């Protein structure tokens, strides 16, 4: 079994999202466990189109307050009431384009858990961090700030390692060498032992596609992938699923 979490970001217009959901509703997933994170407007449609294929639907971002005078925001509680089960928290693009810091991420983690959603906590170092040999310093800080002292029920958390420099579009789009991904995931797993008392599934994200997905999935510490661009067309998504089925 392997996880395929598809973050559609803001790539798709309504017609493209409809077509992709329709296609995905028919795909044989085998032992691939899938969640899709559409834009907020398409969440309800996704819930209807993907339910039959047991594909979970999540929010790309959620506000930390349940309701109130917060123009433009949608809360974790609203997503949960609407039927979502997952939420991305601390995605690199939220941190680096929209300026969210570790305190914001912590509040969003708490709100997500309070609302009964499963957070997918995204962490990752910048190119500057990596070049200054500060990868683990950055990741430990992100993990500790987000998780320390929280009691998280078993199965209600994923951690996604997405090096900022490996993300296509917003980052540098340089795929992470699998050996490096394994080294970092191993260190994350060790760090997680002091924070959560059950084995949290770890995902890798950053320029993943059907050609390289097997090299990440075959790593000991990687339980699945969080995919952006390559999950946004029917052909590449189907190819990705087929490659994942062949190894999971
Ligand atoms: P890409 O797969 O487009 O590099 O995006 C990764 C990501 O940010 C998923 O959340």
Question: How does this structure look, described?
Answer:
By secondary structure, this protein is of the alpha/beta class. The chain has one domain (2-245): Aldolase class I (TIM Barrel), CATH 3.20.20. The chain has helices at residues 14-24, 43-50, 76-82, 92-96, 102-114, 127-131, 135-147, 178-193, 213-217, 234-247; strands spanning 2-7, 32-37, 56-59, 86-89, 118-123, 158-161, 202-204, 224-227. The protein has an eight-stranded parallel barrel, surrounded by six helices. α1 (14-24) runs parallel beside α2. It is globular and about 45 Å long. The mean pLDDT is 96. Bound molecules: 1,3-dihydroxyacetonephosphate (13P).
Detail the topology: elements first, then pairings.
Elements: E1 2-7, H1 14-24, E2 32-37, H2 43-50, E3 56-59, H3 76-82, E4 86-89, H4 92-96, H5 102-114, E5 118-123, H6 127-131, H7 135-147, E6 158-161, H8 178-193, E7 202-204, H9 213-217, E8 224-227, H10 234-247
Parallel strand pairs: 1-2, 1-8, 2-3, 3-4, 4-5, 5-6, 6-7, 7-8
Average of the residue pLDDT scores: 96
Helix content: 25-40%
CATH class: Alpha Beta
Q: Element order, helices and strands?
A: EHEHEHEHHEHHEHEHEH
Could you name the CATH homologous superfamily? Aldolase class I
> And the CATH topology?
TIM Barrel
Low-pLDDT windows of residues: none
User: Helix tally?
Assistant: 10
Number of strands: 8
Bound small molecules, deduplicated: 1,3-dihydroxyacetonephosphate
**DSSP strand content:** 5-15%
CATH architecture assignment name: Alpha-Beta Barrel
Separation of the first and last Cα atoms: 5 Å
Please indicate the count of domains.
1
The spatial strand order of the largest sheet comes to 1-2-3-4-5-6-7-8
